[in-house]
Specification:
Elements: E1 2-7, H1 13-25, E2 38-43
Parallel strand pairs: 1-2
């Protein structure tokens, strides 16, 4: 398992989503991710509805 932990507030969540998207698009498909999946964890205290879009 590859745990990736991000700490994001209202101002940083859009950059965290770009990071996650880039990691997913650039993974090595020859690697066996069934045995070693990527787990993303985002730590935040609150996000407004506008940040969730």
């Amino acid at each position: 398992m590859y745990p990736i932990v991000l700490n994001a507030d209202e101002n940083y969540i859009k950059y965290a989503s770009v990071l996650i998207t880039n990691i997913i698009h650039n993974i090595n498909l020859s690697a066996n991710f069934a045995k070693n999946p990527i787990h993303f964890h985002i730590l935040t205290n609150a996000l407004s509805a506008s940040a969730n879009t």
